[in-house]
Amino acid sequence: MKQMTLKELRIKNGYTQRQVAKSTNTTVTYISLLENGHKNPSDKMKEKLANLYKCGIEKIFLATKLTNS
Q1: Could you report the per-residue pLDDT of 3-40, keeping only the tens digit for each?
Q2: Whether the predicted model's global pTM rises above the 0.85 cut
Q3: Dihedrals φ, ψ of 28, to 5°?
Q4: Is 27 left (phi over 0), alpha (psi -120 to 50) or beta?
Q5: At what angle do helices 57-68 and 43-53 cross, to 10 degrees?
Q6: Cα(54)–Cα(38) distance, rounded to whole angstroms?
Q7: 68: which residues sit within 8 A by CB, 6+ positions away?
Q8: Which bin fits 66, alpha (ψ -120 to 50), beta or left (φ > 0)?
Q9: How many CA atoms lie within 13 Å of 37's alpha carbon, on the beta-carbon side?
């Protein structure tokens, strides 16, 4: 199975950045920064993303690593 970036995970799950921001109580700017590797999500944010995308938190950790490389 191919590892996905944070952006790919979002798109695969059919969300816009605005929807993710609203669901995680953040801003579109912050979500964009995460997806472009300019910020690293906190553990709490990784948990929120895992819940939103209905995947294990380890998938978010891997996506974060892939996004930042």
Answers
A1: 899 999 999 999 999 999 999 999 999 999 999 999 99
A2: yes
A3: -60, -40
A4: beta
A5: 110
A6: 24
A7: 37, 40
A8: alpha
A9: 8
